[in-house]
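Supplementary Note 3. Input sequence used for the single-chain structure prediction.
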Amino acid sequence: MKVTLIGAGSRQFAGTIVRDLLLSQPIADKGLEIVLMDVAAQPLAEMESYARSVIERLGHRAILSSTTDLDQAVSGADFIVAAIEVNRYHYWSQDFTIPRTYGFKQVYGENGGPGGLFHALRQFAPLLEIARSIEKNAPDAYFLNFSNPEHKVCEAISRLTNVKVVGLCHGYFAGAGQISRLLDIPLENLELSAAGINHFQWFQTIRDRRTGEDLYPRLREVEREANWVSDWHEIGLSRILFRRFGLWPSPSANHIGEYLSWADDYVPAQLQYFHDPADGSPWAEGAQTPEWHYHIGLVDTERGFHARRTDETLMSLEASLDERPLESSEELAIPIIEWIGCGVERELPAVNIPNRGAIPGLPDEMVVEVPAKVVDGELVPLQMEPLPEGISAMVRLQGSIHKLLVEAYVEQSKQKLLQAILLDPVVDNHNRAVAMLDEFLERQMDSLPPLH
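The predicted structure, written as discrete structure tokens, is reproduced below.
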């Protein structure tokens, strides 16, 4: 079995997938070849060295190689696993800050909101390049994508190529963990099913796996009795949505809030990327990208004013590979590979694939996040119940935005992109939207497709 990792210079992504692959006995029994691919040669060499050390420590018989050539890496692969970004924090700080500068109360700015649209447009070209290489060199392979914005990029790939693309994210597990903690029931004792789109998924079933009891009534009681501001940044917005719309959303307030016009009241977003505007543009040549604070808790309260500004915040996820324990993650790439490639049935609670009727009331071509299973070697979504109309309306709107965004890319249409922006719930003014669009096109011209 040949598995190719694209974006293998990333310590977090590639290190996790390498460990997961090498710890899987069903995959080992098949005979494993791993190919590491990245355009950056030095990080790629470091990851190859790490992978060889894990192979040696485990006494594994895997074949390992690395390359900077995309076609060579993909050729003959059974599975391609990818996570790519270009100059992530530099552009993300723009995706977050520019819409807010024009008065649009966008939170997070990664997958939804105006920032998510430009993030997706930057990702379309390199991910479609990978997809077209797969079409040419490994047409039967599965493309397991971890690159954000999941739903938008997977929709572009599924609409514009014949590649079997699957978007993967651990957001479902964040929501499942919240429910487990609120109910004070171990996660393994819960039966949970959720449907929606990536980072805006809704739990339709919450049951006791042992007794079959519907636990939604108990969750409503517990939520009503809980301290209102407890874990505010994580679940404050989720609790309001639960009260208003009846289902528990996932994953966390900052992600969910990207799809809502009123989320700013529930997410302390202003400190996500902070800079003093009196110091000039943080994106001018030679300027330092604003610091990223994923949660307010990342502020160093112990060192206080004595804390000096460094790149530690941006590099916190890139800890030494050798310090990582050799244990499997909860990522779903390996369970999918084990089921499709090895015939081992696994639980697949959240994959991003075209709807094809899985969620009634949503377009068939729209990429949704639903549980799935493997039938005759193919990954198919499980049939879900219709979402309540209020939730369905919010999700359908995102489907229309995604469709317009893909059309804007294909047609190189500034008009279609503006339509997508004006449909976004956080955008409330036409003239400011046009000005914001023009600034994005100017600042990110090297990474965006040409639009006319």
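The two ends are 45 Å apart (CA to CA). The CA atoms of residues 201 and 403 lie 19 Å apart.
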